[in-house]
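=== RUN LOG ===
request id: a7f3
mode: sequence -> structure
chains: 1
length: 360
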Amino acid sequence: MANKILHLLFLLLSMTACIEETNLDTPDKEKGAIVIQGKLSIAEKGYAEAYISRTFAFSGATTGPIDVLKASVSISDDEGNSIQLEGGLLDGYYRANFDLGTSPLKTAPGTKYRIQIKTIDNKSYQSSFEEMPELPVPDSLRVEKENKEIIKPSGLPYSIDVLKVFINTPLRAGGKKRRIVWTIGSTFKLTDTPSLCNWYPNETPAPKTCYVDAYVFTYKNLFFDGSAVSIDELKDYPLFERSPSIQFAEGLYFNVIQQSLNKDAFEYLKNSQELLERTGSMFDQLPGLLHSNMVNVDDEKEAVYGFFYPTMEDTIRVYVSPELAGNPDAICPQSYSDKRCCDCLTAPNSSTRKPPFWEF
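=== RESULT ===
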């Protein structure tokens, strides 16, 4: 979904408008323009993914980007080694997972990569070569509870508890200060209560415990440009805050994925997010322009949108106990109508397998 929202952005950018009149017709040359979002990630294991679609004209028959199916998608390094991405049979999403020790791709920082696509109508697209920067490995996370005063729209104050998360990380790696992007997720524990449900006419199963992955910020990353500051590390840097909720009742981990991006990829993602967050207010921050690094190999005049980038990433976690979160009520059995209480595996991204990092 996040990729599809981003693809809508390109259509909006391609429209023309004036002060006196707004025209929502898409220019003919932009109708059906291809949009390619690609990423190569190196962590404990490697993965590559791409989402490919075409822009659309606003009409009753078309409500979103049009997926590009059955394309041939590969990623190659600067020595000609490559891997193939699979998928694209039912939607425009393609992916490859690989082990670092057996992959034909070089996986060292400083390597340059590009993505190459061939569609079923025999058109070939590729990105420019993009260098993968070295990653500053984060040291630690810390969480504390703070009472915060909020002003209501009526002007009256009230106070709430918030959980504030701080990070310690170097900014320098490979002799250079790096541009860092964080993606914030969580994993929480959930025990169901099937005996309180009428799902099971015969034998009611025993309660079970699930571990559920969820985003803390949907479609949002956090950015820090280490090359723009004089310091070499972040100490107790306030990363984000969140109010306690029922998700903390049985314990929760915050999962912070730290990525290192080159300059072009950092600016592309940051400007994309700023455009998605605009509300139309006169106080909105003006976003930067989005520059694609994609071209049609045989026709450089064709409008091609999107961006491919390589990155190294590392995940760091911190546990939040129910006590620190204020002992909120559990999801079950309080929420009798919640289907997760009948079967916790109905929760999206849930599993009964205890994560290896879960120590409590």
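=== NOTES ===
The chain has a mean pLDDT of 87.
The longest strand covers residues 304-320.
=== END ===
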